[in-house]
Amino acid sequence: MKMGFRRTLFLCHIILINLVSLTVAQPNFLSHFCNHNDSTSAYQTNRDTLLSTLAEKTDQYGFYTSSTGENPDTVYALVLCRADAKLDVCRECINNSTAKLKELCPDGKEAIGWYDDCMLRYTNKSVKGIMEAEPSYPVWNVNKNVTSVEQFKDALEKLLESLGDKAASGGSLRKFASGNTTGPDSQTIYALAQCTPDISEQNCSDCIRGAFNTTNFENCCAGPAGGRIIRPSCHFRFELGPFVGEIPEVPVGAPSGCRGLKGRCASVAAVLLNFIGLALLLSIC
Q1: Higher pLDDT, 10 or 111
Q2: CA–CA separation, 173 vs 82, rounded Å?
Q3: Which residues form the signal peptide (predicted)?
């Protein structure tokens, strides 16, 4: 009897541990948007086919856009991972987004999902190189507020303006910036700003700065001790403690044609260098 009870207790303990682990491992889903216009079965098939390829085709820069199908059932998709998300984390986030959006928006022609580490968007119209500021959602810390609200807001706006401009000046591989500033009461404010790298420098700056004079900004950023605004083409976030991880360097002057080719450009460069070296050696001899 005691042996059976102990075995049952042990099994319950294992199940509880697994349940806790699953709960802790759940990623933070921030928000989503669905356009519930009914789509055709052909559109849904194209959507499912396209979404299933996004994770594996996204490289270390965390951005990918593609399309599939013929009009009127063409589906366009775009993914953007946070610049400090490791590739495996990025791809897992994209897969989570794919499953989540198919669950939340089974029949819609357009949907966007935001997690902490990525955004996934699909639609029936081309999105590449087009800045989209709406829909826009605020997310903020509901547990803690700052004391000197106006001074904090002023310091935050200046920091975000600076980071927005810095992110906008990034190239076609990445538009991202992070930094910090000293706010009121000697508080250090940490923040990041990021745009999809396919939009122009001006559009990126407009996307970030355009969120300042909105109700969303008042909700997320005028009082709470942490918050963010998420948009289809950009997002920013701030906290009172460090939250940005290590960010891989983008090679200076790296041509966009090398993007996603898994080292082939480096191999070509090595071959060219060897060829040049051989030519010099032959000329000397």
Answers
A1: 111
A2: 13
A3: 1-25
